[in-house]
Amino acid sequence: MFIELIIVKILNITYNLNIMEQKTVAQNTTYLTFSYVMQKILSFVYFVVVARFLGVEDLGKYTFALSFTTMFAVFIDLGLTQALIREVAKYTDKAKDYISAIIGVKLILGVITFLVVVLGINLMGYPPLTKNLVYLSAIVMVIDSFTLSMWGIFRGRQNLKLESLSIMINQSLIVLVGFTVLYLALPLPYLMAPFIVGSSFSLIFSLIMIRLRLGMWPKIQLNNKLLKPLFLIAWPFAMIAIFSRIYGNADSVLLSYLLGSEGDKAVGWYQAAMKIPFAMQFIPSAFAAAIFPAFSHYYHSDRKQLTNIFDKSMLLLTIVVVPIAFGLFSIAPEAIVTLFGVEFAPSILTLQIMSFGLVFVFLNFPLGALLNGCDKQVMNTKLVGIVLLLNVVLNLIFIPKYQYIGAAYIFLFSHGLLFLMSLFVAKKIIPYSKKKLILVFLRTIVSAVVMAVIVFVLKNYISVFAAIIPAAIVYIVMLYLLKGFTKDDVIYIRKAIIKR
Fold it and tell me: Is the pLDDT of residue 309 over 50?
């Protein structure tokens, strides 16, 4: 309900939607955000437990298999689900024909992609255990792609409640089955069973809901008349998805492949460090989803208001992410050892490097939303493509010598570069103030440095986690004294929270 009030108020502040439209968007955002938060929490807890049970090397094998197949998953969907959502929103009566055509083409794409994954992992010369993990993960990859399109029908009808429920049940099943596998001390490949069970449930549940709620039963057919326009709509979404998936997983795959016998340990340490900051990614993701319609609306009607919303968005996310980054840096040793054990101590430096990369990860969300909302999605795709290419080249150069530490620095550099290039393009859309943005950064960084010093001092006397609360208070006070935010900003946020 709290999130719903925020979104309703933001929608009302930014542009005129009727009450029903506001409530629909707000409820959908609330359902999906809540489900993603719960999923992130359960997923993180599950990962920590799995890491402790498996140890570094087996965790490396396990996460490599998931990363490897995740890169290929996009080649089954190819942006078709996004096209489906858009078309169903316009032509509700054609939903059955659209989904039937997509199922037909996905069966072909699914088989081809699965075979490519099998061929690829065999050509790379991995041992049987790793191959089996990849094969099982590829099954999940195919199932999830079909489920994605099923829920696309509901998204097109602006109904995200059932999908949100499915997400939470799916993750709960993964945790339940996974803990059972760990308790019974079954061999490593059995840890793919939780994903197969969870994904199978989601697919079956989505099909049943389509039948019960929408009164339709998807068929398998290839309809070229429908598929051709769908692919024309889908290709920009496909390109950005391909770049994003490879960009997000290539580092782990290259670590495993390039380091040979040392690759599994390197991936284990790298993934343990990465899991902590990325557990917080739902914050900018939900925020970007909320402001995207406003960016799109005001790009065509009021550039001054567009600039104002962008400035406020960057301010709020900077105020949130900078202390998170410095906080993670200061508690990294205790966080890694407490969560994963002493065996994962090499992950500490990796986490400290990635914590600063998290700043750019957060701020790239509103920048991406601005570019996509202002008809610059092709440019956004090009930027991600450039950074992806550079990321892969740098990983190929530095991983053999610097291993997971090199990959962490490349992670920081790549996200920072995407941030700077996106800012450059954004300047051509809106006249945001560089000076104001730099001042926001400087004030938050100074405040966060003081906060981090407080943590470093206090953790010698009290628990490091107990030191977080007084340090956070110091950060807020320092930021206010440095005019990092003003009374007007507080009033703006208050208006977004308090119901009219």
Answer: yes
Interacting residues of 486 by C-beta distance below 8 A, sequence separation 6+: none
Maximum mean pLDDT: which of 220-224, 300-304, 334-338, 427-431 = 334-338
Helix segments in 259-376, DSSP class H: 263-278, 282-301, 303-340, 347-373
Q: What single DSSP character describes residue 190?
A: G
Q: What pTM did the predictor assign?
A: 0.85
Return d(Cα 166, Cα 179) in angstroms, integer: 20
Q: What are the pLDDT digits (tens) for 22-70?
A: 455 556 567 777 887 888 889 999 999 999 999 999 999 999 999 999 9
- For the chain, domain boundaries: 1-234, 259-500
Please identify which residue in the block is written with the tokens 């004294």. 481
What sections of 190-223 are H helices per DSSP? 193-214
Distance CA 272, CA 265 (A): 11
Cα separation, 253 vs 267, in Å, equals: 8
Residues 48, 347: contact at Cβ < 8 Å? Answer: no
CA 59 and chain centroid, separation: 21
